[in-house]
Amino acid sequence: MSAQTLTQIKHDPGAVSSHGEGRCEDCPIRYRAVCAHCETDELALLEGIKFYRSYEPGQTIVWGGDRMDFVASVVTGVATLTQTLEDGRTQMVGLLLPSDFLGRPGRERATYNAVATTRVVLCCFRRKAFDDILREVPHLSHRLLEMTLDELDAAREWMLLLGRKSAREKIASFIAIIARREAALNGRSLDSRSEIDLPLTREAMADYLGLTLETVSRQVNALKRDGVIELVGKRGVVLPDFARLVEESGDDADGGWIA
Amino acid sequence: MSAQTLTQIKHDPGAVSSHGEGRCEDCPIRYRAVCAHCETDELALLEGIKFYRSYEPGQTIVWGGDRMDFVASVVTGVATLTQTLEDGRTQMVGLLLPSDFLGRPGRERATYNAVATTRVVLCCFRRKAFDDILREVPHLSHRLLEMTLDELDAAREWMLLLGRKSAREKIASFIAIIARREAALNGRSLDSRSEIDLPLTREAMADYLGLTLETVSRQVNALKRDGVIELVGKRGVVLPDFARLVEESGDDADGGWIA
DNA sequence: CGCTGTTTTGAAGCCGATCAAAGTGTGTGG
DNA sequence: CCACACACTTTGATCGGCTTCAAAACAGCG
């Protein structure tokens, strides 16, 4: 809605972002994002249509159904995609971490609500211009295809979780997924005792897992009681034994893990 | 597994299929499948590496984890993609109707179990060769991107169903989804009283919806008792009022429907 | 006709939802 | 620097929808 847009503009540092301007070469997601495979000249095309935007925690990026004039890469922070039934029941359908892509090329309106859960910096591309470049630059469209296929695999893993796992298994799976993604992002290993940061509130976790926030709380604490995890403050989680966590997740140990 | 491969070969009419050979121009899915946007010369490239395979109801097309040397378009029939936990709990993660694409380019091994639920005819492409063509023919990769994005949207709609809908809503949603897809495939409308064919057993529906087959049976009959649907034999369903069915599905009436 | 696979129906139990209230922590303003 | 407010989390008690286990009904096919 326009009210949202106004809020966004008001709070929005806009094109003059605090993030290292313009320089794609210095970008932290240069070799992971949609532009990963681009050559220098191709990158220049994107550079010409890009601008940065940032959002505060809790701020809505777009409402499902609203017009969206850009697509974007998440540079830093975490955002969620959610879908809602009339009566308010909400299901998260995407969790966007740095390098993930937001928006659908060729589509004028957003399909889902996108909300920043931490401070988020987006590298935005004007939609029409991006569509044009996409048609011309195979490196770009192939990378986007690759990322979309990965997302589809992740969505299917997620469907298994939603459809067939117990509450306890859902929690364990979620923590394992976050741990893996954080490890991949930071190039760390999960062998030794590792600490991670849950980027979501209990309520957002519930929306991710198709549970209520009370059940999430109970099961998180149950895993803690059973020594599978340790809690550090509200968001921190220590994993003394990652393999144990995976056992609790219901997946087969090594798992047909995709990424 | 190789045992499976043997079974498949044994039962498989193979390259000499009963389907109208070779002629892409006569293909019933010519303008819907991955090849939809291809020009005549591009089509010729695909024609050079393609072959048909058919499968009987219940027959496995590939096992998750197994080697897969081809990708394919479903020409006729219905196939499912499923994922399984060690203890046997299974969740369907894909329902492939005519024109849908099977397999992931660039990936050597299948991620999911693919099973024919009716007699299925596949138009197969040797994987390596297909990958090469994909790199050379933008019409092909763009169409594949488009189809993958559609599948991702469908997966996310499915996640909402799995995570947040009641058993009754799940059944109503499922019937509505099938009705829409059949209508789109046959170019029919859903306004008037229409009859559809459920391509799945109660058990397969349960795997689709994250329910037990008993619950599926009970809720289907509940919808029948309430006059939302009528049953014709085991697989046939008559929809006296599609709007009523959609109400029961929990989605908002017109729905942010994607395709 | 009897076999097999599928669907329906029934009864009981459990897991997660719901409703309610107390606890924790963080930031703000007095 | 403390106290309050607010947002989030934890804990408790009860309820209900779906699963589970069991068996009967049904349909298709040799």
Report on this structure.
2 copies of one chain form a homodimer. Chain A is an alpha+beta fold and 259 residues long. The first copy, chain A, folds into 2 domains: 2-154, Jelly Rolls; 166-249, Orthogonal Bundle (Arc Repressor Mutant, subunit A), CATH 1.10.10.10. Helix content of chain A is 41%, strand content 20%. Chain A has 8 helices and 11 strands. Chain A has helices at 2-11, 40-49, 127-136, 138-164, 167-186, 202-209, 213-225, 242-249, and strands at residues 50-55, 60-62, 70-76, 79-84, 90-96, 101-102, 113-116, 120-126, 194-197, 230-232, 236-239. In chain A, the strands form 3 sheets. Chain A has a 4-stranded antiparallel beta sheet. Chain A has a 4-stranded antiparallel beta sheet with strand order 2-7-4-5. In chain A, a hairpin with a 3-residue loop joins β10 and β11. In chain A, α6 (202-209) packs across α7. Mean pLDDT of chain A is 90; it is low at 1-20 and 255-259. The interface between A and B is large, with 45 and 45 residues. The first copy, chain A, binds a DNA duplex (30 and 30 nucleotides) through α7.
